[in-house]
Structures are given as C-alpha cells and as structure tokens.
Amino acid sequence: MSMHEIPWREGLLAERRGDAMAYEAFLRDFAASMRRIVAMRLRRLRLTADEAEDVVQEVLIAVHARRAEWDAGRPLVPWLNAIARYKTIDAVRRLRRQARGRVDLSEEEWSAIFVAEESGREHHAMDVESLIVVLPPGQQAAVRAVAIEGASHREAADRLGTTEGALRVTLHRSLKRLMAAVRQGDGQ
Amino acid sequence: MTRHAAGGRSPGTDELVRRLAREAGHAASRGPPRNLVFAGFVAAALGASVLVVLAMIGARADLPAIAGSWILLFKVTGMLLLAVGGLRLVRAAMTPGTEPHPISALAPAAVFLALSAVLDRSGVPPAGARPLLSALLCLGGITLAALPALGLTLLAMRRGIPTRLGRAGLYAGLLAGAIGALAYTLACVNDGAAFVALWYPLAVLTVAGIGAALGPRALAW
C-alpha cells in the first residue's frame, strides 16, 4: 500500500464533509507528488516547467471533477494513479501536436520578420539588436546567432551548447515575447 | 525556463488549488444511484437488440414450442454467461484502479460452449443447416442487433471513468455482442451446439473489434 493512501483518503473524505482546509491540504500534497512524477517520467520529452505544470493542473482538475465517483470502499491511490496516467498521456499528446505546429510555423515567421527587409545587413542587425534588448540573455544569444549571424538551427544549437529542439523552443519563446513587445509599443 | 524550478510551487497551481478547495462538499452526486443507472442502460441495450432482431428477422416460427426446451436454453445460457463476463469486464474498465480479468471473466462461457460443442449430438454441421447462408445470417444478424446495444453500453461507460479507452471499447463490444447474440437466439433456427459455439463467439468478437476501434474516440473525456 502506498504511504499516501491513509492521509489522502482522509483528505478526500474530509472534502465530502465540506472541510475545505483538509481538502486543500490534500490537493497541495497530491499536486507536489504529481509534479515530481511528471518531472521524472517526462524528462525525455523535454517539457518546459510551464508545460509540466499544465499537466499537473489538468490532473488536479480531473480528480476534482470526478471526486464524487471514488468509492470509499476501494483503495484511493490506484484510483488516482489511473486518472493521473490517463490525463498525463492526454496532455502529452496535445503538447506534442502543439510542438509540431510550433516548429512548422516558426521558420516562416522568422524569415518573414528578419529576412524580408532588403535593407543593408548592418542596419538590419542594428534593428534586431535594438529589438532584442527586451529578451533575457539566453534568448538574446539564440536570436543573435540565428537572425543576425545567419547560423542554421543546428550550428546555433551546437555553439550555444544546447539541442536543436531546445533552441527551436527558445526561438519560439523569444518570437512570442518580441511580438508582444511590438504590440505593446504600437499601443502606446 | 526555470521560473519555478523543480519542487517549487507554481502561482497558477496555488490559485487553482485554492479555487478547487472552495468547492469542498459540493460534488455533484445528485440523481439516481450509479448502479441503477448502469443497470438501466444494460436493460435498454437488451431491449434495443431484441427490437432489432424482431424487426429485421422476426422470431422463429416454433418459438413458443421450444421456449422451455434445451435447444433454446442452451443458446440462452451460453450467451448469458458471456454477457455476465462482459458485464464484469465493463464494470472494471470504467472504474479506475480496478484491473479487469478477461480470462476468468470469459472462462465460464468458453468452457460451457466448448463442452456443448464436444458433446453435440444434434447432427447439425458446424457450418449450419445451410452452410455459408446460415453462418452469414448469424454473423450479420448478431452484429446488427448488437450495434444499438454497443452505443448504449458506450454511453453507460462514459458515465464512469474509463482510463484505457481501446480496451474499454473492446469490453463494451464484448458485452454488446453478447447482448446482441442473446437477442438473436429468438430468431436463430440453427440448433447445433457446434454451430452456436463457433459462429456466435465470432460474431461477438466482431462487435468487440468495432468497440475497440470506437473506444478511443467515443470514451474520451
């Protein structure tokens, strides 16, 4: 039997009595446990911390929504495990689909933003430099390597000591941030 | 990237936990008991299958005469055993943390049908009184009769918490197939045990295959 069985069972039974404090304690404890499992099991999928946290939240919501269906005469932990497994697989499938769309899109978006302009390379580089100051250093380095120095994703990843996939994600993040910055600038 | 490093709490999750905790004691458990609703779905599935068989083929002419005889009782017993096994599997598949045991659930029906086939003295060949036609009619009739039952079984399972959807769909198909076959006994004129032991389970497996294919989409939540 899992060491969580007794405290978690008490937490869910307390919920049925309307004890929000005990239920909140259970949810926190369960979330912490899920966070560790997701981090451990899904490490090779290279989920970002935000994505891993999304998975944890989806499991929490699923358990919360179905909590009345747990039969108190049965062990709780296997019940939670089955739901967590289902929702995690579901979330990972969705994240994979998103990642595919994200990688497909980013190349075109990048070329549209940085290469379309036929102005001189110096001018172009200055524009980019002035734009990317809003980015954290890691993202700046990635953008500089790809957009200014024209390195391929592979080369840039090697130079920055990361993987191609991680670099693409970083580029995507910076793009999102840059677009947000531009939009904000327009609004003012 | 490591805005909240491993082990650290996310502010979003904290907020979510607080919001969920405020709903303590308000779980939606209104309405009739779950088991009663499930039983209602199974009864409706049997009713629907019987209606399909009666509308499509009609009861066999001598049904009143054989109603209490072993000829009919044998088929009904075999399919009832199969349905009970399917029922056990379906119940397990819609309850998280409960392992379905297909071998022990299906063993009674399998043993009963196999023994009956071995001891068969009816003289009807396994391929039926009119080979091919009998078999095709049996396969098609049971499958068609089982389709509405499959729909209702999947609906009933959606009210539970299936977590392995392909497998859950397969078991739904097994149950629906057994229900369809049970209904088909009203119309089936092939009384050989070997025929029944061969073609009925094949038809049930066909429906189980359909269920397994539909499961991942029909049961997702």
TrEMBL record, chain A:
Query: Which residues are in the RNA polymerase sigma factor 70 region 4 type domain?
Result: 127-178
Keywords recorded for this protein, A-Z = DNA-binding, Sigma factor, Transcription, Transcription regulation
Q: Which domain of life is it from?
A: Bacteria
The UniProt record lists the RNA polymerase sigma-70 region domain at: 36-97
What family is reported?
A: Belongs to the sigma-70 factor family. ECF subfamily.
Protein name per UniProt: Sigma-70 family RNA polymerase sigma factor
TrEMBL record, chain B:
Q: Which UniProt keywords apply?
A: Membrane, Transmembrane, Transmembrane helix
Specify the superkingdom: Bacteria
Q: Which residues cross the membrane?
A: 36-59, 65-90, 102-119, 131-156, 168-187, 193-215
Q: Which InterPro entries match?
A: NrsF
This protein is called: DUF1109 domain-containing protein
Which organism does this sequence originate in?
Answer: Roseomonas alba
